[in-house]
Amino acid sequence: MPARASLAASLIEDAEISALVGAQAEIAAILRFEAALARAEADIGTLSEAAAETIEEAIKSFAPDLAAIGQGMVRDGVPIPVLVKALRAAVGEPYGAFVHRGATSQDAVDTGLMLRMKTLLGLLCGRLDTILAALQTLADTQGATPLMAQTRMQAALPFTAADKLATWSRPLAEHRARLAALGDALPIQLGGPIGHGASFGAPYEALRAALAARLGLRDAAPWHSDRTLILDIAQGFALVTGTLGKIGQDLALMAQNEVGAVSLPGGGASSAMAHKQNPVAAEVLVSLARLNAGYLGTLAQSLVHENERSGAAWTLEWLVLPEMAQATGAALSHASGLIAGLRFRPRTEP
């Protein structure tokens, strides 16, 4: 993983994404799950309104001790035991014991992740909309610029800037639709200790539906050991950065002095050769694409999820998925600035 204290970290840091994948956001999403669970139990009549309201109000005013939760994470492998203990104490008698009733750590953590991913995917879709609009503007204003197509790194046949732009915008539009569909279908996680719902008793399915409605997520059977969804999200990230990397690679090649088909915005100075303007932003897109491609392969190993819950595979997700989200957000930001200042130059000769 990139070292957050390194100089290179500035290439991947993204304040909006960091706010969604950081510890405070994670705890806030888990607390939202716990409050909604109590309310859903009241909705189906397995918990009194007084108990649910008391739990919800206590959670609203609850101030999590992030240091203690972090220590609990190291000790227990999950943040939930220490968090639930503190929540129950905050609720007090007689309702404290009803906090997290029937649920397991994975229910809280996975549902919290889905809540954050729903917001994050919407954010990424918004950034893709900005890029797609910028590409359309380029097509409208510079699309008639003649260019020389390149196949296998060799001059092929003449075409236009609009033709080139279409090879970038079409896949990005498809990735945007894919991310939006994922965001609209993210499910809750509610299976109890071993993922079959028995800990919630006979009204389990009604509770699941009520919880999903409360959280604005999809009702779904437990997916404790089926991590397909995590890979679907990760693949969405990798597809976006992969296509942005293709754009970056194209632009770096088109900006070569001997080609001169585009001029790029920004700096890119050399310490030894004052005449150079290196295509830094384009190169960063290539690097982030390759980074996410590697992460995707690493994350795919979390599908090997032994029995009903894997501590190792689950932990791997926590280490990799946020980094992929950061890389995707950063790539979209870099691409937006790059495309906004892009200018095509006529290139008709091989």
UniProtKB/TrEMBL annotation:
Under the heading Pfam families, the entry gives: Lyase_1
Q: Which SUPFAM superfamilies match?
A: L-aspartase-like
Annotated Gene Ontology MF terms? isomerase activity
The keyword Isomerase appears for this protein: yes
Please give the InterPro entries that the UniProt record associates with this protein.
Answer: Fumarate_lyase_fam, Fumarate_lyase_N, L-Aspartase-like
Question: Isomerase as a keyword?
Answer: yes
Sorted alphabetically, the keyword list is: Isomerase
| Annotated signal peptide | none
**What range(s) does the Fumarate lyase N-terminal domain occupy?**
31-289
Homology family: Belongs to the class-II fumarase/aspartase family.
- State the name under which the record lists this protein: 3-carboxy-cis,cis-muconate cycloisomerase
Origin organism of this chain?
Answer: Aureimonas ureilytica
